[in-house]
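Review form for a predicted model. The reviewer records the input and the model, then writes brief findings.
Reviewer: anonymous (R2)
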Amino acid sequence: MSESQNNYVVETNNLTKTYGSKTVLDHVNMHVAQGDIYGFIGKNGAGKTTLMKLLLGMSQPTSGTMSLFGTDKLSLARHHIGSLIEEPALYHGCTAAENMRRFAILANADTSEVDEILRFVGLGDVGTKKVGKFSLGMKQRLGIAIAMLGHPDLLILDEPINGLDPEGIKEIRDLLLRLNREQGVTVLVSSHLLDELAKITTRYGIINHGRLVEEISAEDLMKQCQQKLHIVTEQPAVAAKLIKKLSPKAKITANENSLDVVDEKLESAKVNQALVNGGVDVTSITFAADKMEDYFIQRMGGRA
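Model under review:
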């Protein structure tokens, strides 16, 4: 398919969804680039599932626009998407392979790829075992396998690790990484398990009460959450010059009466001594770390 100039697989412009007087999505501008594992973060009821359903055509927006793979011909573009929204709808009296064949027929996909996909998701050896006897993790992997029918370029997954035990979470996490790295599949995945998403996500979108409050790359997020040396002084500009002499590679952010310094090799005692020797009065010097969880919680409107 043709792609947008910005190489966005998903792009929305002021996407809004209301139900009566309730606004569920409020002018959302989302950008999912090709090759991303895009972690969609928000509290329950923040609008994550609603946005995914709009992208899939399961619901219609009140206003705003969206494009998929660089086109607004959404019905055609959606043929290149696989999805798992909420729980997979499975035939519990059938085997994994029988489920796959049924869904392949519905999706007009090639049934000959069923065994290959089942092996890829780790369900190649379940044989005649009925899906009703599968663990939750096995059901989630089967749901993702069904979403993979037709070799989609984008997977949209709503809380695929919700309710899983640590082993099941790792299986899904490893599966998504393999899909992304080995098959080049772009993934839009929602979850409230921040520490697990952080292990695979390349970019985050943070939604709060229907508003997409921030999009940030995993790299930039890690920089935000680095340990910082926080120095309170009435001479931040002078202090910054002295610290640069001490460590030219230090990253310094100066404010009106303080500055933050990021440099793993700098010791607070040496910094303090250099500042005092340079005639800078230091009110306090402390280490502060912006934890990832706190970063997200602050942007999602605090703890529930």
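Findings: The chain has two domains: 8-217, 225-294.
Further findings: Residues 16 and 252 are 39 Å apart (CA to CA).
Recommendation: see findings above.
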